[in-house]
Design brief:
The complex is a heterodimer of chains A (116) and B (114). Chain A is mainly β and 116 residues long. Chain A is 0% helix and 53% strand. The radius of gyration of chain A is 14 Å and the shape is globular. The chains are: A mainly beta (116), B mainly beta (114).
C-alpha cells in the first residue's frame, strides 16, 4: 500500500537557519504530493503541492521538488522565522488499486521549533 | 467567509456514551472527510463521502458512524464500540476527490473520554 516516511522530529533551529525536512514515499501509481502545516491547536493548511515528476511547489519561501527517481519530496526553506514553528506533514494522494477513489496518506509529522 | 466549522472545540465523554461531532462547510465542496490525529501517528482516515447520501469507510472506521444528508454537513458519531476514542478529530473537504484537489481542514475537535 501507499506510505509516507518523514524525518523524525523534533527539529529545533535558530532564526534565519536553513531548513530541510525529508520526505520519501511509496505508491502504486503516479501520486500527487503535498506539504501541509499545522499551527498549535489548529487544523491543517496546505503549504504547497506538486502533481507530477520534476514539478516544484513553492509558497511563503518554502519549496519542494517532486523527485520520482528518488521517490522524495523534501521540504526546504532558506531562512526560517519564529512564526514557522509548527508541525509539518508530508502527504500523497494516489488512485486506489482497482478503483477511482483517491485519498490522502499522511506522514507522521515533524515538529519544527524556531528560536529567536 | 467560506470555510469549515467544527463544533464543539472540546468535548468530554463518559465511557459507554455515544457522542456526535459536527462538521459544516460552505465551500460548496462535494467531498468531505473525517480524520483522527494521535500524537506521533499523523492523520488516519475514518470515513469519507464523495456525494450526498454516499460514504465509504476509511482505514479506521470501526466504532464510528457518519451520515451525509446534506452537502454542507458530515457529522461523525463516536460510538461506545470505539475502544480508545480520546483523540483530536479533523474534518476536511475538497472540490472533488483528493487526487489533485486541495483538502481544506476545519479547526478540529478534541475529544476526551473520562
Amino acid at each position: 500500500g501507499d506510505s509516507v516516511t518523514q524525518m523524525e522530529g523534533p527539529v529545533t533551529l535558530s532564526e534565519e537557519a536553513f531548513l530541510t525536512i525529508n520526505c520519501t514515499y511509496t505508491a502504486t501509481g503516479y501520486p500527487s504530493l503535498f506539504w501541509y502545516v499545522q499551527y498549535p491547536g489548529e487544523g491543517l493548511q496546505l503549504l504547497l503541492k506538486a502533481t507530477k515528476a520534476d514539478d516544484k511547489g513553492s509558497n511563503k519561501g518554502f519549496e519542494a521538488t517532486y523527485r520520482k527517481e528518488t521517490t522524495s519530496f523534501h521540504l526546504e526553506k532558506g531562512s526560517v522565522q519564529v512564526s514557522d514553528s509548527a508541525v509539518y506533514f508530508c502527504a500523497l494522494s494516489d488512485k486506489s488499486s482497482g478503483g477511482s477513489n483517491y485519498k490522502l496518506t499522511f506522514g507522521k509529522g515533524t515538529l519544527l521549533t524556531v528560536n529567536p | 467567509d467560506g470555510g469549515i466549522t467544527q463544533s464543539p472545540k472540546y468535548l468530554f465523554r463518559k465511557e459507554g456514551q455515544n457522542v456526535t461531532l459536527s462538521c459544516e462547510q460552505n465551500l460548496n465542496h462535494d467531498a468531505m472527510y473525517w480524520y483522527r490525529q494521535d500524537p506521533g501517528q499523523g492523520l488516519r482516515l475514518i470515513y469519507y463521502s464523495q456525494i450526498v447520501n454516499d460514504f465509504q469507510k476509511g482505514d479506521i472506521a470501526e466504532g464510528y458512524s457518519v451520515s451525509r444528508e446534506k452537502k454542507e454537513s458530515f457529522p461523525l458519531t463516536v460510538t461506545s464500540a470505539q475502544k480508545n476514542p480520546t483523540a483530536f478529530y479533523l474534518c476536511a473537504s475538497s472540490m472533488g476527490l483528493a487526487g489533485v484537489n486541495e483538502q481544506f481542514f476545519g479547526p478540529g475537535t478534541r475529544l476526551t473520554v473520562l
